[in-house]
TrEMBL record:
GO terms for biological process: protein folding. SUPFAM superfamilies: Cyclophilin-like, WD40 repeat-like. The lineage of its organism: Eukaryota, Fungi, Dikarya, Ascomycota, Pezizomycotina. This is Peptidyl-prolyl cis-trans isomerase-like 1. Residues 411-556 form the PPIase cyclophilin-type domain. WD repeats lie at residues 1-31, 43-84. It catalyses: [protein]-peptidylproline (omega=180) = [protein]-peptidylproline (omega=0). One of its GO terms (cellular component) is nucleus. It comes from Orbilia oligospora. PROSITE patterns: CSA_PPIASE_1 (PS00170), CSA_PPIASE_2 (PS50072), WD_REPEATS_2 (PS50082), WD_REPEATS_REGION (PS50294). Pfam families: Pro_isomerase, WD40. One of its GO terms (molecular function) is peptidyl-prolyl cis-trans isomerase activity. It comes from the Eukaryota.
């Protein structure tokens, strides 16, 4: 579960992680086990809704972008946040665009100005290495990378779909169609619709779209961009089929009316980007959420093979899907001798545990489906978070969490710094720090003042020592206690005199007894001390580092 509505689910190929994101900016990592999944780690890297997410073709990189105009880059294998990009404009879509085995990971980020910016996926260079300014005339809302053709396909809110290569001249590759007029890519313009999602099949030979407002699922041949199949999920069609009794499943009229009302809600801007269509590993089946449940459609026979979640009345409307079909234990190459062996350990390693994961409209859970038919319904619901039912309830829970912060991890571009907090000694300073951290206030800020053998200082949005404010919008009083600056790596509030605390703080690198009863001590660094020392030794000009050292984010634990 999440504490807010779950927005996206992603399985990482080859590395077998499930990554779930929610609308409050939280990202959770889960690891596939022999049976089921196991929680690994949680991040709150964004202050607000997450606009888009992407997993690289090799399954080793994950990226997210949010309304806070930041991009967060994660290393999947170590489940660690490794970099942050600060954008000038609100992003609209994100996609990894490098092939498996590439030496340099490449990340494409579209924004509200119709641009697609190309970034170094390692985060070492925070400036775009290329910009596509004329490819689209309207904001790009979906992108997908085809590892087989080394080609990106992108669509905008106006219904235009483009092919381009993420290198050289960023033109359409020669391995696909020659003239766009010979394709069916203009079908969206003809129907005055736009794709809300693009999905490449695992074989790379096809791609599928879901579009609004026509509510069509389309399957295209990738090379020719010719339409292969089209499935009508419009409200008019499903209403007609319900009345005629020709739907794949007949439901009661009252229930159908309730489902129809929900179906209209998913066209909202906040939901439409989450709807997707996915392929199975063969590329012959597509899966998508519908008014009746999750449809599994055989695109060869053109029939609905299965209807999942049809009886799950509490689940509601399925929105975002992710499918795992691997063998959790099978990682090494299988030799002829191994294949012919009767070794039970080798046979067990080849066992599969397929799993479909789905989000649902306005639900804080995600739902998992597997091939085990013996699941006890009374034991299957897992509550790993206390759900928030109202905005008021959410605020109460959040306030309680803020008051209970006792430790923090500063993720910086130089490494992680672990801090023990002292809420008993400095309750207001800790509350101010923890609240700012959870709200993302410190994200992207630099260490603007560094003095060797003394301290490193940060927390100023202006980056020059003149800015910052407390969570109360005013300066707050000092909190002097029995704690002293008698040890290095003490964390204290910076100020401009008595009772002028705001958001800036510093970490000492030596004993500094002359600061006692002048600066409020609210924590001490306990790990990553080498990172603090390393920052204190960088080259500076007038106490400001020549190279920006940023706080990626602060995790409260």
């Amino acid at each position: 579960m999440h504490r807010d509505n779950v927005a996206f689910t992603n399985w990482t190929p080859f590395t077998d992680f499930l990554i779930t994101t929610s609308t409050d900016g939280v990202i959770k990592f889960w690891k596939k086990q022999d049976v089921g999944i196991e929680f690994v780690k949680m991040f709150k890297p964004h202050a607000g809704d997450i606009v888009g997410v992407s997993v690289s073709a090799d399954g080793r990189s994950f990226a997210s972008c949010g309304v806070d105009k930041t991009v967060r880059i994660f290393d999947v294998v170590t489940f660690d946040l490794i970099a942050m990009l600060t954008l000038k404009h609100t992003p609209t879509s994100i996609c990894w665009v490098h092939k498996r085995g590439a030496s340099l990971p490449i990340l494409a980020v579209a924004n509200e100005l119709n641009q697609i910016q190309i970034f170094d996926g390692r985060g070492e260079n925070t400036q775009p290495i290329h910009e596509l300014n004329k490819l689209h005339r309207k904001p790009v809302n979906a992108m997908a990378f085809n590892n087989v053709f080394d080609c990106v396909i992108s669509s905008d809110v106006g219904g235009m779909v483009e092919y381009w290569q993420p290198r050289d001249d960023y033109d359409k590759p020669s391995s696909v169609f020659e003239y766009k007029a010979e394709t069916n890519l203009f079908d969206f313009k003809k129907t005055k619709s736009a794709p809300t999602s693009l999905t490449i099949s695992p074989t790379g030979l096809q791609f599928a779209t879901f579009s609004l407002p026509d509510r069509q699922i389309r399957v295209f041949d990738f090379a020719s961009a010719k339409l292969v199949r089209s499935y009508d999920e419009s409200i008019e069609t499903i209403t007609t089929m319900q009345q005629a009794g020709t739907a794949v499943q007949k439901v009661e009229d009252v229930d159908f009316g309730r489902r129809l009302a929900v179906e209209k809600e998913i066209e909202a801007e906040s939901v439409r980007s989450k709807i997707n269509v996915i392929f199975d590993e063969s590329g012959y089946f597509i899966l998508y959420g519908s008014i009746l449940g999750i449809k599994v459609v055989n695109t060869v026979t053109n029939r609905v093979s299965r209807l999942l979640a049809k009886d799950e009345t509490g689940m509601g409307r399925a929105v975002n899907l992710a499918l795992y079909q691997g063998a959790p234990k099978k990682k090494q190459v299988v030799t002829l001798d191994m294949a012919a062996s009767s070794n039970p350990l080798l046979q067990e390693a080849g066992l599969r545990d397929p799993m479909l994961v789905s989000t649902a409209h306005n639900k804080q859970r995600f739902y998992m489906f597997n091939s085990d038919g013996d699941v006890n319904k009374s034991e299957r619901d897992i509550y790993n978070e206390k759900p928030t039912t109202t905005a008021k309830g959410s605020a109460k829970i959040e306030t309680k969490a803020k008051e209970s912060g006792t430790a923090a991890i500063l993720h910086t571009t130089f490494g992680d710094i672990h801090i023990r907090l002292f809420p008993e000694a400095a309750p207001k300073s800790v509350e101010n720090f923890v609240t700012h951290a959870k709200n993302g206030y410190y994200n992207g800020l630099i260490f603007h003042r560094v003095i060797p053998k003394f301290m490193i200082q940060t927390g100023d949005p202006f980056g020059d020592g003149t800015g910052g404010e407390s969570i109360w919008g005013r300066e707050f009083e000092d909190e002097f206690s029995t704690l002293r600056h008698d040890k290095p790596y003490t964390v204290s509030m910076a100020n401009a005199g008595p009772n002028t605390n705001a958001s800036q703080f510093f970490i000492t690198v030596e004993k500094t007894p002359w600061l006692d009863n002048k600066h409020t001590i609210f924590g001490r660094a306990v790990q990553g001390l080498d990172v603090v020392t390393k920052i204190s030794q960088v080259r500076t000009h007038k106490d400001k580092p020549l190279q920006d050292i940023q706080i990626i984010n602060i995790e409260i634990v």
